[in-house]
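Complex 434.
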Amino acid sequence: MQYFDCDKIQFEGPGSKNALSFKHYNPEELIDGKSMKDHLRFAGAYWHVMRNDLSDPFGAGTANMPWDDGSDSVDNAIKRVDVFFEFLEKTGIEYYCWHDRDIAPELNDLSASHAALDAVVAKLKEKQSETGVKLLWGTACLFSHPRYAHGAATSPDASVYAYAGAQVKKALECTKELDGLGYTFWGGREGYATLLNTNMKRELDHLAAFFHMAVDHAKKIGFDGPFYIEPKPREPSTHQYDSDAAACLNFLRQYDLMDHFKLNIETNHATLAGHTMEHELTVSAEAGMLGSIDANRGDTLVGWDTDQFPTDIYLATQVMLVVLDMGGLTTGGLNFDAKRRRESHEPIDLIHAHIGGMDAFARGLKIASAIRNDGRLAKFVDERYGSFNSGIGADIESGKCSFEDLEKFAFANGEPTLASGRQEMLENLINEFI
Ligand code: XLS
Ligand code: NI
Ligand code: NI
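Predicted structure with nickel (II) ion bound:
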């Protein structure tokens, strides 16, 4: 049985008027010697593609999912796997990501939930080997169930903490079983609603201890992919501990976790943090810690995580400039953590949505590569810091300078003559390529 009313989506080029074709994403086309698909490493998000019924706080789900009987049965969960792989096959997406509770139901007790997971993981494994699709990362849902109302690894209740540990242990083992390339921790409810009832120090110490247990368990079971932390500032907690990339890096450094973790940066989380995506990616990449990307976008008029599909060429270009500058993604990829609008309720809308995101990133990749090969942008930035290449600047960078040296230089050289930052000229330069 097929549920998506189309054949495998083909590249037809920018001239095509066929909505069910790629205009720019041409998987095997080489950009700077590497195929587009290897640059972009697109992933499908199981929770959005298979489990998001498009409900919102004001109304019921609208998504038409004729394959789903709405039950919590393992059979239903297994049936979804076939549909998901039909979706992956038709879009040509070769990676995917899941939460434990997306792929399998949470049942009455932990051992029943574990058994359900095992059954679905066996099915996923079979489909992976049949198709060559790979698991980009797995994660555990530590935020939906009421037991996690006060957090999971930052819950004030040790028995909740233990339950969360058991859940992550299992999710990690399932990730390993599926040869997953990474494992993600998004903060979920790790934060607080009010400091009146919160011991922040104990909560953060507990969270770090939890991550260290994850690292130890990974070693024990031979899982060697990186762990990712996915920063997000608000939603669901008033304050989330992992609020942005800088906060996460500080936490990882403080608790000696830098060697085992990287960051998974999501566009809409960056903007909710009051940053640009470019900023969050750059902060991560400069620390050697950019691991993976949740590709979506927000709505400038709406202050929550709207998880829209990324279609902005300018934004995709900025993302790909950072990715190319750091030498490309290795274990990570571009995971479409994005959902359709509530009005786009038909299965085929999932295909349209992903075509849009893939084409946007294909263009972003081509444009970013052209900007880099042109070289003017990088040359401008290099020259802007040219005064640090010799003389007093070089001495500052090599740590040879004291305040006395700076004072001597300032007395001898008088008032500095400033160069222009040329922001507008550079914005024009970028637009030359878009
Ligand atoms: C929520 C997050 C979530 C993570 C995985 O806002 O984006 O979907 O990616 O737990
Ligand atoms: Ni995400
Ligand atoms: Ni999100």
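The chain has two domains: 10-374, 377-433.
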